[in-house]
Fold these 4 entries.
Entry 1:
Amino acid sequence: MRTASAALTTLLLATTLGACGTDDGDGGGDASARTASSAVPTTVSEVLEVGRPVAVAEDGAGRLLVAHLVEEGPRTSVAAAWRLQDADGEVLAEGPGRQVRNESSIPGVWPLADGFLVDLGGNGRYELLDADGELTPVEEVETPRALGPGDVAVEGARAVYSPIEGTIAPTPPLPGGAVAVELVIDADGGAWALPESAASPSDAVLLHLPAGATTWQESPLELPARGYPIGLAVTDDLVVVPVAVTRGAGDQLDALLVRPRSGADAAWRRLEAPDGLGSSWFSATVEGLPDGRLLVFDDVDVAQVVDPEDDSWEELALPAAGDHGWLLELAGERLYALDWVGGAAYVSTDLGGEWTDLAG
């Protein structure tokens, strides 16, 4: 089992602090966080001292990047910064983020084989961050192109970054002018897309553009009444579509639809979700674990580990219960949890069996 790298541990220890606002408008956060927010930071070091980590990524060379925000209230960021370290924990660079005063200001960071693609203001201004912390603007072109290995979907599935070309281009057109709401590019350069909601569940499909192909393949999705897809994931072996249903109590996770990644005519299997998983499943994230199981979580406080072989579901214990909003990031066998409300960061090397509070 891989252990938490010294780099990420050192990085988050140095930069994990209390939140300066919540996303639910309830005025949450402790007194010290509110005090820090009242004095707007003016330097990168101050932002890293009082800000909360909101995004973390590790590139193919083991370099680690964490982005931080300081907020004056819900969905209003006033300062941002980032820190980059190498695999040994040495600081390579620090720099300011982009201050964008709206709810879309969460920075975007995407790991590449060497370096990162970043959108530091969360507003579609893309740059490359290299090993020395130098930022280079990324050119955007108007013509779609063939996809390739290592491509990264951005712009809410509307565009794709190519590390080979070094540019961002529109997503290859979907059949009938459909718009993708979810887009995943697999390791071979193939694309998988969920188009906008169909008129009825019976019309829902998954689209697949195999690597090197020019024609999208359709795979019908069998959805329940009032059901709709809320995510898309492609692991080493599987394609996974989490499905929610709208009920009186809210949006509840209904099942995971899974099928083998290979084979155009592969059949879907339905992994039915257990009861009691809450009613906040407006979206879902699925990650493939090294042992073939699936980690599925909402954007609030529910996480489950699913075994697609025997259709078993097991709760993943998060670092703390109560009024939290968790962002989970998987890196090999290390799992990181960023607390959107409290601003803390945790790491687990045994899939939630034990969490280490990196703030000490």
Note: The mean pLDDT is 82.
Entry 2:
Amino acid sequence: MVLGKVSRLIVSASFLALLSSCNSLGIG
């Protein structure tokens, strides 16, 4: 199902963005 794939991609992308922003805050 395409919708499931898209939502999964969005979730993983937002998780990755959150993780990288947390890393930036931790480093900076």
Note: Residues 1 and 7 are 10 Å apart (CA to CA).
Entry 3:
Amino acid sequence: MLTLLESDVRRTQMEHAECDRTFMSRPGSLQNGTFNAPTFTNPVGQSRQCVYTFVAGPRQRVELVFTAFNLRGMHPE
């Protein structure tokens, strides 16, 4: 369960900021939902870091429950 829906995507000057996301609670909006990471192709030898920020309203709490979590690439040994 995702307590907050994506309602505002902030772009920063950071490298790879196109994948950063901000999820904000808004009065009168739904209080749960789902989200997916964007799909990008990275050049060989390059990595990508995406920052997800969840902002709760007063007396709210953010709860993330992952029902699936997949990573690409080689498993570290």
Note: Strands lie at 6-8, 21-24, 52-55.
Entry 4:
Amino acid sequence: PSKWLATAQSQELITELEASLLKNSQSPNSGFAHNLIEVKHGGKNPGTYAHEILAVEYAGWIRPDFRIRVNQTFIDYRRGNLTVVREKKNDYLAEFRQTRALKMAISSVHELFDMMPELSQISRQCVVANLINPIAVFEAIPLPVLAEKLYSASEIGKLFDVSANKIGRIANDNNMKTEQYGEYHLDKSRHSDKQVQAFRYNNHALNTFRHILIAEQEAKEHALV
């Protein structure tokens, strides 16, 4: 999940979702809009939780076939194929449409649970409710999807206006490529289409880089005096 969160696409989605919730009068100071991603430690349901839209988007990212099912369900709904019309009690066509929609949703639910076995029982219920009734309007419900945000050397370099190579050298000199500071991921090489192993840094590493770079700058200033 952290690898998906590090992509530019996921960050753009989060930004757009925050703007959409704010536009719909869900201010950043109330409700769920200000807490699209939340990590809970301890308690009855520990884990990382996220807005349901992010949950479905992440599931589609790791499984293209799941994304196809969700998109097809949306298309069928827009075309009216999933609309349940109860003009008469013996409206068999409406019952058939409802049954088909339920089967599609249940199939999608099973696939999602297979991909994400760590989901809590509460989150499973939320996913079921959202996918089984696609024509209903649901409140924003947190679902466990994402881990702590991780940064590449290039991203950290841009934050501090230094090169990615410098960040890498600092990390090597200070033995920072450990679990305390992040984790390794497979990334696309900058020089070819091959995948390479690259270290992604967490917030603790980010603060460590900040202190090291500040100390380095102060040392340079003292040397000039």
Note: Strands lie at 37-40, 47-51, 142-143, 182-188, 195-201.
